[in-house]
Write a structure and sequence with these properties.
The protein contains six helices and no strands. It is an all-alpha fold and about 140 residues long. It has one domain (about 10-60, about 70-135).
Length: about 140
């Protein structure tokens, strides 16, 4: 039995904003001077996603609107989008919601591995906030 998920353009924008925004939060929290490497690693992980989530994240789109002058303003957009994405996917297909959660967790892990040492305390704190938003539903 195959489940068909119907996502509106706004739903897809929410998923992309949430996923790419999570990577942006990790990059912004990386105070060691390699945010571009964090963003690249995380984005590559998102681009490698499979299933419906993979198709949505890989689509060429200009609907990701991440605005903010600081990390707090970015988090104000991204964290609710993560929770909303989990909610909208969970209503239609819990397995695809888990795919989204897993994809974002892999991406933020990849983004946080820009150094050979452990991630900084600020990055670890941001990972915790992102994880909390993913499990808030």
């Amino acid at each position: 039995m195959s489940i068909t998920i119907t996502l509106t353009d706004q739903d897809k924008a929410t998923l992309r904003t949430a996923a790419y925004g999570a990577v942006s939060l990790i990059a912004a929290a990386d105070a060691t001077g390699t945010p571009h490497k964090a963003a690249t690693n995380g984005s590559n992980a998102l681009y490698a996603a499979t299933g419906l989530v993979g198709h949505v994240l890989a689509a060429k789109s200009k609907d990701i609107k991440l605005k903010g002058k600081n990390v707090a303003e970015l988090a104000d957009q991204v964290l609710p989008a993560l929770t909303a994405a989990m909610g909208l996917l969970g209503q239609q297909d819990p397995a695809e919601a888990e795919n989204f959660r897993s994809t974002v967790l892999v991406a933020i892990d990849a983004a946080s591995r820009t150094h050979q040492s452990q991630p900084s305390p600020t990055v670890v704190a941001m990972i915790s906030k992102i994880t909390g938003a993913l499990y808030a539903v």
